[in-house]
Amino acid sequence: MLESNDGKNVHTIPQKIEGEISSSITKNWTDQAIRCYKSNFNCTECSIAQGNYSFVCQMPNVVKVLLEQVGPPTQDKIEKLLA
Questions:
Q1: What is the largest CA-CA distance in the chain?
Q2: Which residues lie below 8 Å from residue 67, measured CB to CB, with a gap of 6+?
Q3: pLDDT tens series, the chain, 83 aa
Q4: How many Å apart are CA 55 and CA 75, to the nearest integer?
Q5: CA atoms of 34 and 25, how far apart (whole Å)
Q6: Residue 14 belongs to some domain of the structure
Q7: Which range of residues forms the domain containing residue 47?
Q8: How many domains, in total, are found in the chain?
Q9: Measured distance CA(55)–CA(48) in Å, rounded
Q10: How much is the pLDDT for 20?
């Protein structure tokens, strides 16, 4: 916690280590992760790559972790997403 110029306490969010992946996005297959997986990591089809974001997409790394820890997305989830 820091103190601002006016003497009030300010809560800060600690910066992540560059390249670190949040554990919250490697527990379940999200729609974005499924899209990345199904496109074979084709960034030209990705809404993140087409946006003007100030971060580097970590989705290929997230998908690799999901495949190792959770396994591939279920066909049911894929079909619902692509319906």
A1: 55
A2: 37
A3: 444 455 555 544 444 555 677 788 889 999 999 998 998 888 887 877 777 777 778 888 999 999 999 999 999 999 998 88
A4: 30
A5: 12
A6: no
A7: 20-82
A8: 1
A9: 10
A10: 72
pLDDT at residue 6, as a whole number: 55
Placement of tokens 């580097």 in the chain: 56
The owner of tokens 């959770």 is 70
Q: Give domain status of residue 8, yes or no.
A: no
Burial classification of residue 51, based on how many CB atoms lie within 10 Å of its CB (0-12 exposed, 13-18 middle, 19 or more buried): exposed
**Dist CA 33 CA 77 (whole Å):** 11
User: pTM of the full predicted structure?
Assistant: 0.69
| Residue type at 68 in one-letter notation | E
